[in-house]
Design the sequence.
C-alpha cells in the first residue's frame, strides 16, 4: 500500500478487533500514526504492537465511547502525545439481535432468525446499542471537530451498516441506530464543510468479524448470508481497509456527506 497517509495522525475506536483493527493496521501501513481506542484488552495492546512493528507510532487509550468524558480525553491525549488528529474513525459499535417484544403466535425458525424470539429487548440492551452506536459517534465527532476546524482540514469516517437501509428481523434498534449514523454524517458534513472537515460513512455488508463470528460459524446461517449476497462471497477485510485509507487521504477530498456501501451488491437489490 502506498504511503497516502504519511505524516497523518488517526484515531480509530473499537480498534481491538474486527473492522477497527483492520482499519488501524491499514492506516499504519499507509504511513499514519494511530491512536487505538477500545475497552481495555490484551487485543488492543496487540494491535498497537503491530502498528509499531510497521514503523509507526501507536497510542493506546482505553475508552468507553458511550461516556463523553472518556471520548474527550481520548482526543485530548492524542493531540497532546501525537501532535494532532487528522482522521477519526468512529468504529466502536454494539450489536443486539433481539425481538422488540416476544412473538406470541409463532416462533420464527432458521433461517429467518437464529435467536430466541420468546424474550423482549431489555432496557439495558436498548441503551447499550443506542449509547454506543449513536452516542459514541456523536461524542467522537463533537470532540474532534473544533481541532479539525481550527486546522481547516480533517476527515471523519463513521462506520455504519447495511442495516441502516435494509430491515432485518430482530435488529430494529440496531438498524435504527445505524440509520441515525447516516443522517448524523450528512448533517455534520454540511455544518463543517466550510471549515474543510469532510464527514463520510462506510456501510459494510456481511463480514465475518468478531461481532458476527457466532452467526458465520453456523453452517445454516452462513449459507443464508452467502445466498443473499449477489457476489456470493463474504466481505474482504483488506478491501475494506483500503477503502478506509482512500476516504482518509487527500484523494477523496471532494467526497463528503456520503454513505458508501461495501456489501457485495446487497443493497442494490
Sequence:
Amino acid at each position: 500500500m502506498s504511503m497516502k497517509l504519511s505524516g497523518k495522525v488517526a484515531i480509530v475506536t473499537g480498534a481491538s478487533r474486527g473492522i477497527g483493527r483492520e482499519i488501524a493496521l491499514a492506516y499504519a501501513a499507509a504511513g499514519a500514526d494511530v491512536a487505538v481506542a477500545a475497552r481495555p484488552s490484551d487485543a488492543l495492546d496487540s494491535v498497537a504492537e503491530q502498528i509499531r512493528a510497521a514503523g509507526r507510532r501507536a497510542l493506546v487509550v482505553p475508552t468507553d465511547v458511550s461516556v463523553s468524558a472518556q471520548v474527550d480525553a481520548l482526543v485530548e491525549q492524542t493531540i497532546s502525545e501525537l501532535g494532532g488528529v487528522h482522521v477519526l474513525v468512529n468504529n466502536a459499535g454494539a450489536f443486539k439481535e433481539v425481538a422488540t417484544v416476544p412473538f406470541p403466535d409463532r416462533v420464527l425458525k432458521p433461517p429467518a432468525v437464529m435467536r430466541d424470539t420468546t424474550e423482549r429487548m431489555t432496557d439495558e440492551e436498548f441503551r447499550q446499542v443506542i449509547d454506543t452506536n449513536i452516542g459514541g459517534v456523536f461524542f467522537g465527532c463533537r470532540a474532534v471537530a473544533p481541532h479539525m476546524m481550527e486546522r481547516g482540514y480533517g476527515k471523519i469516517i463513521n462506520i455504519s451498516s447495511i442495516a441502516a437501509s435494509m430491515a432485518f428481523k430482530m435488529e430494529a434498534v440496531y438498524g435504527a441506530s445505524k440509520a441515525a449514523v447516516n443522517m448524523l454524517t450528512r448533517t455534520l458534513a454540511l455544518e463543517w464543510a466550510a471549515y474543510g472537515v469532510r464527514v463520510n460513512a462506510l456501510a459494510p455488508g456481511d463480514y465475518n468479524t468478531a461481532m458476527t463470528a457466532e452467526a458465520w460459524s453456523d453452517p445454516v446461517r452462513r449459507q443464508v448470508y452467502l445466498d443473499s449476497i449477489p457476489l456470493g462471497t463474504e466481505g474482504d477485510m483488506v478491501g475494506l481497509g483500503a477503502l478506509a485509507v482512500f476516504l482518509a487521504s487527500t484523494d477523496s477530498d471532494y467526497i463528503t456527506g456520503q454513505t458508501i456501501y461495501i456489501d457485495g451488491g446487497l443493497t442494490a437489490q
Q: What stands out?
A: The domain at 9-97+127-208+236-264 is CATH 3.40.50.720 (Rossmann fold).
